[in-house]
Amino acid sequence: MPLYMDVHKKIKGVTAEGVAEAHQKDLEHQGKHGVRFLKYWVDEKQESVFCLVDAPNREASNKVHREAHGLLADEIHEVSEGK
Question: H or E stretch including 25?
Fold first, then answer.
């Protein structure tokens, strides 16, 4: 399956703790859409979150986000791991 990096920008008041809670909700919903959330990163200063997702298509991660907590990605990039 392809890998995607989804980017959430300008989330006012974002915290690592809040993102951890949202990520847990993603994990609870991911199976319904054939998605696996692999890792995430938080940049509190830039109010941004980045999620690495193994998914059948680029829209699948936002379907999970919509069901889990409603925080949709602003950008979704197909990526490949460097060697």
Answer: helix 16-29
Three-state DSSP class for residue 61:
helix
Residue ranges with strand state E in 1-83: 3-8, 36-43, 48-54, 75-79
Q: Report d(CA 26, CA 29) in Å as an integer.
A: 5
What whole-number distance in Å separates Cα of residue 15 and Cα of residue 45?
10
Residue 37: both structure tokens together: 């959330």
Q: Which two tokens stand for residue 63?
A: 């379907």
Reported as a single tens digit per residue, the pLDDT across 12-40 is 999 999 999 999 999 999 999 999 999 99
Nearest to 52 by CA among 69, 35, 67: 35
